[in-house]
Q: What sequence folds into this?
């Protein structure tokens, strides 16, 4: 049920590749923190891959929720 509710708030397809780490309401602004899932590309399914961490966090302003600004804080894998 939680995933269904989040899919209504986030852009379409976002939950396929990212997981919600946390959500905060600070100074009348919503912040939703997302991290990219560890999904291997199809051509590397059998190979052993090593994680190199994450790129710097990117902030994207999304549509307002209940009249309050909403920012998506996204971390992508290297």
A:
């Amino acid at each position: 049920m939680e995933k269904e509710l989040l899919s209504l708030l986030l852009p379409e397809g976002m939950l396929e590749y990212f997981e919600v780490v946390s959500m905060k309401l600070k100074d009348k602004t919503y912040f939703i923190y997302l991290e990219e899932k560890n999904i291997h590309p199809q051509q590397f399914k059998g190979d052993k891959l090593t994680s190199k961490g994450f790129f710097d966090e990117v902030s994207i302003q999304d549509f307002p929720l209940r009249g309050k600004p909403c920012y998506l804080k996204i971390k992508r894998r290297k």
Notes: The helical segments are 2-9, 14-17. The CA atoms of residues 64 and 70 lie 5 Å apart. The longest helix spans residues 2-9. The longest strand covers residues 18-26.
